[in-house]
Specification:
It is built from four helices and six strands, in the order ααβαββαβββ. By secondary structure, it is of the alpha/beta class. Strand 1, helix 3 and strand 2 form a beta-alpha-beta unit. Helix 1 crosses helix 3 and helix 3 crosses helix 4. It is globular, with a radius of gyration of 14 Å. About 15% of the residues have low confidence.
């Protein structure tokens, strides 16, 4: 049942993305998925991970990664009320650190790069990938 939901969601996302591409002129458009459907596209690693405040654009990115890879990302870190780094988008609930079990970092990053509305994509030595809806930038911290 969950796979069927993901397939339906991926189809809706693809249709929405195609519609946006045809009608956009270099502007970013938010993909509007119903909250309950977008929520199925990812899981949280533990109950302490704060992901309920993710904006639609970030949920759509996670949904896109799920649709592209066929696997649900696991959010290892979401909103951090007191981020360690000043200016961190985690503090504004605009970023997620994820893993996708069974997939290489390269595969996850490729799926993230193709997501409409993607901002930053970073990778860390421990295999965690950062995605956010801020300005476009890339980094590797290893």
């Amino acid at each position: 049942m969950q796979n069927a939901s993901l397939l339906v969601m991926a189809g809706l996302f693809a249709l929405q993305s195609a519609t946006n591409v045809l009608g956009q002129d270099a502007k970013r458009h938010a993909v509007h998925l119903p909250r309950h459907e977008a929520r199925l596209a990812y899981a949280v690693q533990t109950v302490s991970v704060r992901a309920g405040c993710f904006p639609t654009r970030l949920r759509a990115i996670l949904s896109h990664i799920a649709a592209k890879t066929g696997r649900r990302p696991i959010v290892t870190s979401g909103h951090r009320p007191h981020p360690r780094r000043h200016g961190s988008l985690h503090g504004k609930c605009l970023a997620a650190d994820i893993r996708v079990p069974g997939l290489s970092e390269r595969t996850i990053i490729a799926a993230a790069r193709s997501a409409p509305g993607i901002g930053g994509i970073g990778s860390y030595c421990n295999g965690i990938i950062h995605v956010d809806v801020g300005p476009q930038r890339r980094w590797v911290h290893c």
